[in-house]
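Batch manifest, entry 17 of 40.
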Amino acid sequence: MKPLKTFLNLFTITAVLMLYAIPGLSETVKGPLRTRNQFPPFLMFLGPLPESPATLSKNELKLSPAVDYSSVFINKKSGEYSGNWDALIDMELTVVDFLVEYEVTKKLTLSLQPILVSMNKGFLDSSLETYHDAFNFPNYGRENRPKDEFGYSVSYKNKKWFDGKAGGLYIADSLISAKYSVLERSEALPVNASILYTLKIPVGDSDSGFGSGHFDHGFFLLSQTVVHPVIIYVNAGYIFLSDPDTKGANINVNNIPSLFGGLEYLYSENLSLIAQINYFSSPFNDSIFSQFDNGSVELDLGFVYHFSQQTSIEFAFAEDLAQSGVPDFNVHLRISYLFNGKPSQH
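Output type: structure tokens
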């Protein structure tokens, strides 16, 4: 429960600080940052995507392509820690998604999210070592591997799960979702709420680590509370996972609960500043080492800026908060364009 306690403590502290911020200049809600954990062994399963409960207007279409760039390093050998897992994850990866949303009715939004992944040896190993040393952050043994080399393989009880493939841009397991509004904000109750259902489609190559080979699905309750000039997001979910296809390993995974908290500060008419924490438990059994055992506790800091009523950009920088299954860092950029309408005012 330590990662969850870390999530709750940091979210509470951040909430208090932002609630005492100077008054904002806008009531136009823009968040949260729609980032997903890019840790490769978790990426092949369904994970929570931060979402607002807000829906589009009828017949509106929104295109929101995004690109994320991450660095990950793990080198764990079962003989060194008396466990069952061997994991070598030494890469920089680019994840591209093409989120498309369409409003079917006033309360129902459907979305499709194809995802592409490129895994490479990268170029940042020396810079990351210097950065970690300067702030006394753990380096996870990166200094003991050749600089800027690719490695991605995971075994369980000496049997292979998959062998990662470097280079190229490959389709990964992708998503379809339905979001239904159940509560709209009023003067008496400044809260929006929706129910979200997401299905993961197994289109990625499971032999190369781009997918699990099976469907996953999850249910999420999304909420948004307006305490001007701060917007508070709290999402809770439960995700049903299927055991992955492997090259011989017998891997059983657990269903995972998730919890998300976000704070949006309405800085100006066009700009929101956002801090958020995304947590979900580990799907793996008897992993022992923290990057698998602690699940995910990821902090995102960033902003959303509207260039016009139809066009916006979001930027985020993500960090691991609990030596959990989160990339050493992740840089996220998403551009959104809304057809046939104006951004929702909530």
